[in-house]
Design goal:
With 231 residues, the chain is of the alpha/beta class. It contains 5 helices and 8 strands, in the order ββαββαβαβαββα. The strands form 2 sheets. Strands 2-1-4-3 form a 4-stranded mixed β-sheet. A 4-stranded mixed β-sheet has the order 5-6-8-7, covered by helices on one side.
């Protein structure tokens, strides 16, 4: 009969640490390179002395570089340090941009109208700060002329170079050729600038007309201007 294993006493159980760093009595190495609360180098001292050094200042001894020889321990307010770390991580997650990847598919023999429509979609996606995956789809004997697909992709890149830069050069993948465009710092800015200029010119025009002595006849009044955007 196998003997039963003795259950460890409560004070013998190993409780996993909830924090990544070892502090104070958790530091088991015999000596550490001590850094004081102001960042000054104290030197290599026994770990027990370093803990007492921190306790006299009402602070904690934190092992900040356990892989060093000897490990580096710093005197600090650990609770304040953890709070600042959590706040920085929270701010980093808050400001982290979610990058979207849109895909546009083209044929090597695409017509002019269809090309302009597809290019308009690419411009819109880039102005939305999204990456664009442009795919050329080859069919049948079109695969014998991959240079036509490459030329078309480079034409796209040239047409949108002000707001999009090539992140991945054209790459042949089976029957497809793929290129990835990433938005530049000008993406999403140029359109707004044009809108501001248009509003400014309209306000100036209205101010000039308001200064006239009398309003023109009804038939002579300017009609609302219509903007036609070709796809």
């Amino acid at each position: 009969m196998r003997p039963r294993r003795r259950r460890p006493a409560l004070n013998e159980r190993v409780v996993p640490r909830a924090r990544p760093e070892r502090i104070n009595e958790e530091i088991r190495v015999p000596r550490v390179r001590l850094v004081d609360e102001k960042g000054g180098q104290v030197g290599i001292v026994a770990t027990r002395e370093a803990v007492e050094f921190a306790e006299k200042k009402g602070l904690d001894l934190v092992e900040v570089a356990p892989g060093a020889d000897p490990p580096v321990a710093r005197v600090m307010d650990y609770s304040k340090y953890r709070y600042e770390q959590e706040q920085r991580a929270k701010q980093a997650r808050k400001h982290q941009l979610q990058i979207q990847v849109k895909e546009i598919k083209l044929r090597p023999k695409i017509g002019t109208h269809d090309y302009e429509t597809k290019k308009g979609h690419i411009v819109r996606f880039l102005n939305q700060r999204a990456k664009v995956k442009v795919t050329i789809m080859f069919r049948g004997r079109e695969t014998l002329h991959p240079e036509r697909g490459r030329d078309l992709l480079m034409r796209v890149a040239e047409d949108v170079k002000e707001i999009g830069a090539i992140e991945q050069q054209p790459l042949l993948d089976g029957r497809n050729m793929v290129m990835v465009l990433a938005p530049t710092k000008n993406a999403g800015v140029k359109t707004d600038a044009k809108g501001e200029d248009l509003e400014g010119s309209e306000e100036a025009l209205q101010s000039e007309r308001s200064g006239e002595d009398s309003a023109p006849p009804r038939d002579a009044q300017p009609q609302p201007r219509e903007e036609v955007v070709e796809a």
